[in-house]
Amino acid sequence: MSVDWIAVDWGTSNLRAWAISRDGGIAHEASSASGMAKLARDEFEPALLALIGGWLPAGRKTLVVACGMVGARQGWIEVPYNEAPCPPASAQSARSPQTNDTRLDVRIIAGVMQRDPADVMRGEETQIAGLLQKSPSFDGVICLPGTHTKWVRVTGGKIVAFKSCMTGEVFGLLATQSVLRFSVGGDGWDEKEYAEAVRAGLERPESFASALFSIRASSLIAGLTQAAANARLSGLTIGTELAATRSYWNNHTVSIVDNGRQAALYAGALKIVGATTALLPAQDVTLAGLRAAHANFVRETT
């Protein structure tokens, strides 16, 4: 199939790309571990070409629409944030890095900032744009699980408020660099322990630090298994996050961008506390958002 344009999701750890044909189908797709955190500024174009170079038609520029951390201060080119309230993934605020390969026309979508309380996002705005492309009248709350999970309120086609939580990063640090690394591990899981820990984190967030140490103490003197420790640590961290984001999920249906295991944990935790959820496939909304941005770029040039 003839390649019309290329969609790119470029995060901190990974790079994903899809070649879109003239009929709108996916002609090719590929990914690599060349995430933003692993590249110097002069390495972005070579990393992109290593993945998509074979897709680029000769003799013309191909539009490459990219979202994510590629537009961060440490990325290929810093793209200034749009300020909320704002529509997500605006084509007007995108920026283009200089390229050596004459076949490339790269546009990087801007992230979104919030002044009070201070917060930022890059990449998630494109997934939100994808949800709005699929459901233009959407009015509600979106949860985007990740290393830094986002809770976003969307009204009238705009991101009006959001809150980021470092729960994923905190869990990773605790599980691998704290004393809890001697208690957690493996693939075991205890659903009952998870539910109890979610409730404990939600109802007693002020006890978070002491509840964490109880995981280690329980493994030493009470026979807490690794499976139960895994579930308790996960439940406490997510439950404490739910305490901080209650205004987002309480009495709302939460649309969760489904990134796999992590989204399932959030959906399970919200069910435990009585909230209603709906799962949205992550790749579907990411591509839909990139398609929406591409359509805006095309309208600008015609």
Protein architecture, described:
By secondary structure, the protein is an alpha/beta fold. Helices cover 37% and strands 25% of the residues. The chain contains nine helices and 13 strands. It has a five-stranded mixed β-sheet, sandwiched between helices. A five-stranded mixed β-sheet has the order 11-10-9-12-13, sandwiched between helices. It is globular and about 70 Å long. It starts with a strand and ends with a helix.
Helical content stands at 25-40%
Structural class: alpha/beta
- Written as H for each helix and E for each strand, in order along the chain, the element string is EEEHEEEEEHEEEHHHHHEHEH
Strand fraction equals 15-25%
The parts where pLDDT drops under 50 for at least 5 residues are none
| Global Rg | 21 Å
Compose a concise summary of this entry.
The chain is an alpha/beta fold and 302 residues long. The protein has helices at 44-52, 124-134, 167-177, 191-203, 208-221, 226-244, 246-249, 261-272, 282-301; strands spanning 3-10, 15-21, 26-32, 62-68, 82-83, 104-108, 112-114, 119-121, 140-144, 149-155, 158-165, 253-258, 276-281.
